[in-house]
Every structure is written in C-alpha cells, then in structure tokens.
C-alpha cells in the first residue's frame, strides 16, 4: 500500500472518519465496512458508515449494522452530508470510482481531506491519496485483514471484527467456491483462531431464507430459467412484473444464479433482472471462462473471472437478445471448457 507510513501518522491520533461503500451493498461491502468500523472504534476514532442505498435484510444480525447511515433514506441524508463535511479522513471500501456511490461521491470529491481506497476490482480511478488495490484478492474483506496487519494491529482482530471480515470472504467466494488462494485460507485460519464461529456464520448467511425466497427460487428454476445447451449456458430472467409479484427486496435473489452452475454441462450462468430504470445482470462461470470480460466490455460492469456484474440501459427483451448474440461470439471458449 502506497504512503502507508503517512497514513499511520494520520491515524495515530483520534480522527473523524467516514467509511463508505458502494450502492446496493453486498456481504463484502457490509462486512468490510463493519470490520473497519469496529477496528477504528477500538483505536478511539469517531467512525461512521455511509451507504448510498440500503443493505439486504439478511445482514441485520451483524453487530453495528444499526449505526449505518443510508443516504437514500430521507432521515439519514442530512446527517450523511454533515458527516462528510466534518470528516478528517475517508475510507472507500469495495469500489474503485466515486461514480459508484452517487451523491456521496460528489460530497467526498468536494472535500480536501485525504481518502483511503481499499478495493479488489480492476482499473481503479486515481482519486485516493492512500490506495490499496489488489485484483488478485478474493474480497475487500480479505484485504482489510491484511491492512490491519500492515498497521501492526493484527492482535486487535477480535471475534466481532473477525466475523465481519469472514462474512465478506464467505459471500464473495461463494463459500470458497471461487476466487480462492493459499493466502486466503491462511487468512481464514487466522480469523477462526480469533474466535470466529464458521458454523454460526454459515447458518446466518446461507441457512436463513424465508418462505418467500424459497418460492421465488422455485419460480426461477421452473418458469424463468432458459437453457442454451450449445453454448453451455443457463439464463434466469426476472421481469419487473416478477419483482412486484414476489415483492422482491434487495438480497432476495442473492445466490440464485449459482444454482445454474450445479448442472453438469453448464459453464456460464446469468441472472437478468429488470428494474425501474435499468436491467441488472449477474454473471457466474466455472473453470477458466471469464465472465468479467463480458461484464466489462458489454455491460459497463466488472468483477472477477468467475463472478461479475453489469447493467443494461436496453429493455429486458433487447438485453436478452444481446446476450444471445454474445453467446455466438463466445461459443468456442465456452465449448472448450473441460467437463467437471
């Protein structure tokens, strides 16, 4: 991490610190924000978390989540503005461009106070004085653990901090299904030694679904699933009508796309989800086939080789047709993937 000694000097005395993460925060975004929040609190800093939009209900159990200020919420917006104006330092977690955080990004850009970026996505913008970027990392949470190590504070990682960090690692790797490395497993071994209960975490994150979510999953795998055997691809399509019918909230479709990869011959899985103003896409793959390339090149997105996301400004139908045309382009590499 560049300028680490200067950052250590800044953090040597109590500061007003704002932690911010990306819109539609996932487990890595919430986990890294809360992990850093508890760490900074232990070092006597006045820390606050701001998210541009709300987080999924399945993270309500996490210690400290009730302190998060959601900029989309009318009651939180004035305080979010005040906190950004009064901050001595900003931590930007799990995103690499201020455009990812909407109005909050403009507030941070206007401030002359230093910014710290910790992120694992490709091609970061050069907006932070202190930048820790590692696209080879599984998650921002993994990087946060190593950041705390760099600060010389590994012994400060307790069960609360460790559980927050482990949450992001579990969710961003699909329970260690992808984006893993020997370094990651050494990290999670350290976290377990700090007191993290992996069984508790697995139950909270993956065995805690509602009846509605199960019925939605059933619909996705029967009425909304389309298979393209020639291209070893499966696509789930959710319309705006489906969102209203099932009263889909943020987090309800988390992990649904992964079910397609359970099929023996499927190499790429895509969830297309229509929203009010745009269409969201989630990509997953097995083996060496890179969905990150498709998300970045065609859908203003990015991510990792086996897990990526993007958006489309086209209609739901046109977005699906674009994907079907792309399958023709990528037929050869998809077909070249070995059987598992």
Oligomer: single chain
Fourth CATH level, the homologous superfamily of the largest domain = inorganic pyrophosphatase (n-terminal core)
Examine the coordinates and then state which fold CATH places here, giving the name of the CATH topology of the largest domain.
inorganic pyrophosphatase (n-terminal core)
Lateral strand order in the biggest sheet: 3-2-1-4-5-6
Roughly how many Å apart are the termini?
38 Å
What structural category characterises the helix and strand content? alpha/beta
Residues in helix, %: 25-40%
- Order of helix and strand elements from N to C terminus: HEHEEHEHEEHHHHHEEHEEHEEHH
**Global morphology:** globular
Query: Over all CA atoms, what is the radius of gyration?
Result: 20 Å
Q: Total strand count, please? A: 12
Main sheet? 6 strands, parallel
CATH C-level name of the largest domain? Alpha Beta
**Number of folding domains?**
2
Produce the secondary structure layout:
Blueprint (H helix, E strand, L loop, with lengths): L3 H7 L5 E6 L5 H16 L3 E6 L17 E2 L6 H10 L2 E5 L8 H9 L4 E5 L10 E4 L6 H11 L8 H14 L9 H12 L4 H9 L4 H12 L2 E4 L4 E6 L1 H6 L22 E7 L4 E7 L5 H8 L3 E2 L3 E6 L3 H14 L1 H6 L4
Parallel strand pairs: 1-2, 1-4, 2-3, 4-5, 5-6, 8-9
Antiparallel strand pairs: 7-8, 9-10, 10-12, 11-12
What can you tell me about this protein's structure?
The model has no long low-confidence stretch (mean pLDDT 94). The chain has 13 helices and twelve strands. The longest helix is centred in the N-terminal third of the chain and has 16 residues, at 27-42. Helix 2 (27-42) packs parallel to helix 5 (140-150), helix 2 (27-42) runs antiparallel to helix 6 (159-172) and helix 5 packs antiparallel against helix 6. The radius of gyration is 20 Å and the shape is globular. It has helices at residues 4-10, 27-42, 77-86, 102-110, 140-150, 159-172, 182-193, 198-206, 211-222, 240-245, 291-298, 316-329, 331-336; strands at residues 16-21, 46-51, 69-70, 89-93, 115-119, 130-133, 225-228, 233-238, 268-274, 279-285, 302-303, 307-312. It has two domains: 4-206, inorganic pyrophosphatase (n-terminal core) (Alpha-Beta Complex); 211-336, Diaminopimelate Epimerase, Chain A, domain 1. It is of the alpha/beta class and 340 residues long. Strand 1, helix 2 (27-42) and strand 2 form a beta-alpha-beta unit. Strands 3-2-1-4-5-6 form a six-stranded parallel sheet, sandwiched between helices. Strands 7-8-9-10-12-11 form a six-stranded mixed sheet.
């Amino acid at each position: 991490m560049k300028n680490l000694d200067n950052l250590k000097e800044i953090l040597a005395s109590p500061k007003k610190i704002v932690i911010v993460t990306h819109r539609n925060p996932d487990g890595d975004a919430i986990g890294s924000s809360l992990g850093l929040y508890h760490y900074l609190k232990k070092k006597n800093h006045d820390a606050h978390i701001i998210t541009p939009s709300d987080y999924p209900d399945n993270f309500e159990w996490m210690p400290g989540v009730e302190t998060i200020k959601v900029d989309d919420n009318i009651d939180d917006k004035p305080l979010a503005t005040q906190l950004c104006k009064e901050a001595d330092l900003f931590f930007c977690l799990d995103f690499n461009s201020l455009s990812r955080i909407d109005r909050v990004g403009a507030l941070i850009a206007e401030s002359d106070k230093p910014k710290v970026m910790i992120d694992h996505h490709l091609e970061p913008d050069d907006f932070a004085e202190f930048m820790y970027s590692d696209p080879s990392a599984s998650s921002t949470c993994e990087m946060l653990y190593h950041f705390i190590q760099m600060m010389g504070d590994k012994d400060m990682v307790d069960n609360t901090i460790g559980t927050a960090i482990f949450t992001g690692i579990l969710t961003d790797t699909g329970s260690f299904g992808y984006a893993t490395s020997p370094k990651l497993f050494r990290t999670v071994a350290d976290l377990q030694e700090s007191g993290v209960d992996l069984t508790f975490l697995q139950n909270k994150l993956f065995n805690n679904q509602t009846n509605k979510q199960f019925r939605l999953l059933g619909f996705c795998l029967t009425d909304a699933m389309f298979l393209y055997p020639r291209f070893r691809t499966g696509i789930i399509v959710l319309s705006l009508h489906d969102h209203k019918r099932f009263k889909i909230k943020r987090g309800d479709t988390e992990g649904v796309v992964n079910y397609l990869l359970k099929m023996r011959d499927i190499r790429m899985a895509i969830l297309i989800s229509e929203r009010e103003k745009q269409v969201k896409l989630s990509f997953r793959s097995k083996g060496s086939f890179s969905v990150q390339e498709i998300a970045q090149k065609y859908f203003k997105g990015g991510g990792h080789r086996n897990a990526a996301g993007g958006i489309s400004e086209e209609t739901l139908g046109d977005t699906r047709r674009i994907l079907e045309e792309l399958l023709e382009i990528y037929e050869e590499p998809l077909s070249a993937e070995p059987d598992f």
